[in-house]
Design brief:
This is DUF4835 family protein. A hairpin with a 6-residue loop joins strand 3 and strand 4. The termini are far apart. This protein has 10 helices and 4 strands; from the N terminus they run αβαβββαααααααα. It is an alpha+beta fold. A 4-stranded mixed β-sheet has the order 1-2-3-4. It has 2 domains: 180 residues, no CATH class; 89 residues.
């Protein structure tokens, strides 16, 4: 009996210790493709789901309830033989302490997602070599998701994951696939992780930590203080744009957060809404209509 109990405990410990990092829903949409046989798209969807959710991406220990919730929407626009032209929308969220609410962290669309894939082709990530654009793009966004999530729980906690994403970029730059090089434009995979790792954008990462860990996570216990911290995070962005106008990272932040910010400041204890709106309109004028909806 003692051996049985020990074996059960060891099995439980192993399951907890080696739980994968992501709880990610992968969807492959082929509505735009005139293809009678849809099986390959279903196979691709299942294979990618297994690849993302069953691979071990880091050496960190994730319990089952700590897995990062995410979604990947792949829309295929053209398909011929083994060649796919598509875009990919990535979304991720994290729980807020003492609530059932999931706060959106990342909401980003990448239009430069072309790849080759044969049905039932095994998907295996090798961090030392570029093997396929499909594997590299998916692995890259896995590490961005994990890095951003870690940044919301500890200051600059995502460094390890961002370095892995940056390594993928370096290896992929010799390929003929778009999105990996600096000259492809500011909204590229290169630019995203380069900004995340740059000291020039450190306010972004400080704001990510303050907003979530010191702001959102205490709203339930101290709504007034939580709001003040979140408002202060917006002022950090103001400091950043003075040095780096039209910063790419600020756009990605508010693409995920605009509705949440509107809702936070439209209810509960009052803060200086006039100054807050002025700050928001300076750092994210592209969401001015959303800021106008903050009324309290």
């Amino acid at each position: 009996m003692r051996r049985l109990i020990t074996a059960v405990l060891l099995l439980f410990i192993l399951q907890v210790s080696f739980a994968q990092e992501l709880n990610c829903t992968v969807t492959v949409n082929s509505d735009q493709v005139s293809q009678t046989n849809q099986q390959i798209f279903r196979t691709l969807e299942r294979s990618l789901s297994d690849f993302v959710n069953k691979s071990k991406w880091t050496n960190r220990v994730y319990r089952e309830n700590e897995r990062v919730n995410a979604r990947m929407f792949i829309t295929v626009s053209q398909y011929e033989s083994d060649r796919f032209e598509a875009n990919i929308q990535i979304q991720s969220s994290r729980p807020v302490f003492n609530t059932s609410y999931e706060s959106p962290i990342f909401n980003y669309k990448d239009d430069a997602f072309n790849f080759q894939y044969l049905e039932f082709q095994p998907l295996v990530y090798n961090e030392n070599v570029f093997e396929s654009n499909l594997i590299s793009v998916i692995a890259y966004y896995v590490y961005v998701i994990l890095g951003l999530d870690a940044d919301t729980f500890s200051l600059e906690g995502g460094d390890e994951m961002f370095r892995k994403a940056q390594n993928i970029v370096t290896q992929a730059q010799g390929s003929n696939f778009s999105g990996w090089n600096q000259e492809t434009g500011e909204r590229s995979r290169f630019e995203l992780v380069d900004n995340l790792m740059s000291n020039s954008f450190r306010e972004y990462r400080i704001a990510m930590y303050n907003y979530h860990r010191k702001g959102l996570d205490i709203l339930g216990d101290n709504n007034s203080t939580g709001k003040q911290v979140i408002a202060g995070s917006m002022r950090l962005f103001e400091t950043l744009i003075k040095r780096r106008p039209n910063a790419f990272l600020i756009q990605t932040f508010f693409d995920a957060k605009s509705e949440e910010i509107r809702n936070i400041f439209s209810d509960g204890p009052k803060v200086d809404i006039v100054k807050l709106k002025e700050t928001l309109n300076r750092v994210a004028p592209f969401y001015s209509s959303t800021w106008n909806e903050i009324n309290y």
